[in-house]
Amino acid sequence: MLQSKIDEWERRGLELVERRWKWIVVIVWLVICGWFIFQKWDAIRFFGLPDTDDNMRMMQVRGLLHGQGWYDLRNYRMNPPFGANIHWSRLVDLPIAGLILGLRPFLGGPAAERWAAAIAPLLPYLLLLFALALAARRLIHPLAYPLAFLAILFAGSTNGMFMPDRIDHHGWQLALLAMSMAGIADPKRVRGGLVLGITSALSLAIGLEMIIYLALAGAAMVLFWVADVTEAGRLRAYAVSMSGGVSLCFLVFASYDNRGAVCDALSPVYVSDALLGCALMYGLAWLSPADWKRRLALAIVAGAAIGGFHASVWPQCLQQPEHISPEAQRLWMSYVKEARPVYRHGWRIASLIGALPITGAIGWAVLAWTRRRDPDLLRRIIGIAVPSVAASLLLLWQTRTGPAAQMMAALGAAALVWILWPLFWRSKYPVVKVAGAVLVVVVGAGAVVPMVINLIPEKKATTYEADIGRANNLCASLWGLHPIALQPKGLVFTFVDLGPRLITLTHHDAIAGPYHRNYPQIVDIMHAFRGSADQAHQIIVDKYHSNYVLTCPNSSTTTIFMSEVPKGFYGQLAHGQVPKWLQPVPLPKDSPYRMWRVVG
């Protein structure tokens, strides 16, 4: 009798999970949002925008709300009067601006900004969870989506893009990529093609960070059609929605600076590529010869035509899209941590980033093997598995692919748990049943690596390392910048990474931030702090007419200056060798900053 009741409760519970999955997605999202807000409560209170891009995004939103033109994305608080050329779009500005306008009557301006920055990153997380649930239900089993949620909880790199105050555009791109995966997984071909085309266009309008995965998804649509001519409807829907979406996004969101043939944003370069590619794909779907060999030959010809067009018309975009000078690469870009391979970050960070992608790759392989007798489902599994594995392999190139690699791997990890768990749960031995099932869930969901690493004590930071961390935190804080904000307004010559935070929290202007289109200013900043005092005067005073010089002793940037050019201008300032054309600005004794007024 007891066993029958347990079986009945289990049956009803599973039916509830399957039928009410949308409500469960919302509940899970609300719980995770509450946890994220709890974790970041102090950062929310003190407007702790964690990254230079988050600060610049807030400045872009402020510019929009203060009347700056829709298509003018230059930030005129940097390198005035010319402004800093920012290659983003307004698309991600809209939810932040809407939240500020909605909250301002109730909270006032500063509090509205704080809570808009806290809430905005959580919105795309709902879309992400919804997309993961859809893809898991379509590829694995209607009851498998909670396992994808379990896996994503251990995707630290992915979740970091959705934390309160992380208002940069990466969260929306990850959510749209997840929706693209759900579109590929959709058994309804026309609907799946439409979803993939629309989400791809919106992602490209935000930025090009996901272009490799979106290109692989587009190639998958063609290969689906090569393998099965009945996939023509999916290919046709994708071609129409992608071409229309890219065109509309370019017209609505491309800034004045992005209307030229630039390689780092949605511009005439990628619009023309997309329109040609979509026209060819529509033509392929229209022709649809019965023989798969002829379809493959046509697909190869179309791919060669697109590649030839891009190479002949836009040869400048065959190189790295940033187009910075070798000097900027040497002095600045080579020090950007996220641009380094994952193995250069130490075993602890490499393990935390790479564990879930490795588990996911195994899961994709197991899922493909178990579904090999269903050609339609197998195609859709491979269509998502290939971009997922590609993102994991790209970690060997740059760590910045970690969030996408972990997000897509969550589905592979869920598949691995779903397939292996019953092998233990069906055992007649209770110990094997429970212990084996728990082990599969812990390992398959990617939890075991974070759990084990947390048990291994970290190497105690040296005094030198602790000073660097303290300086980085204090110089970015409201408290640290408050005395700086009390000085009369002026143009402040400071480190590249301090520029966005400075203009966000004070009324001062800066020379540059870490944005590749403004690499001449970045190089000038590096030359000024690394060279002689006379060279610094020529750059700081004669060229930029700066009013102040601001440094943050012991911060990360200073370690480079002191190790490579200890006798350079920064090294001289650090040792008290201040030239006569600078006059110290009195700051509180415990201030993390050193500031000088330009007097000659």
Topology of this structure?
Layout: H1 2-19, H2 21-39, H3 41-45, H4 52-65, H5 93-107, H6 109-119, H7 123-139, H8 145-153, H9 156-159, H10 170-185, H11 189-206, H12 211-227, H13 232-253, H14 268-287, H15 292-313, H16 326-331, H17 347-370, H18 375-393, H19 402-425, H20 430-444, H21 448-455, H22 463-475, H23 478-485, E1 491-493, H24 499-505, E2 509-510, H25 519-530, H26 533-543, E3 548-551, H27 556-564, H28 569-574, E4 582-584, E5 594-598
Parallel strand pairs: 1-2, 1-3
Antiparallel strand pairs: 3-5, 4-5
Helix pairs in contact: 2-7, 4-5, 4-24, 5-6, 7-8, 7-10, 8-19, 10-11, 10-12, 10-19, 11-12, 11-13, 12-13, 12-15, 12-18, 13-14, 14-15, 17-18, 17-19, 18-19, 19-20, 25-26
What does this structure look like?
The protein is mainly α and 600 residues long. It has 2 domains: 330 residues, no CATH class; 134 residues, Rossmann fold, CATH 3.40.50. It is built from 28 helices and 5 strands. A 5-stranded mixed β-sheet has the order 2-1-3-5-4, with helices on one face. The termini are far apart. The model has no long low-confidence stretch (mean pLDDT 92).
User: How would you classify the helix and strand content by structural class?
Assistant: mainly alpha
How much is the average pLDDT?
92
Q: Report helical residue fraction.
A: 55-70%
* Share of residues in strands: under 5%
Give the low-pLDDT segments: none
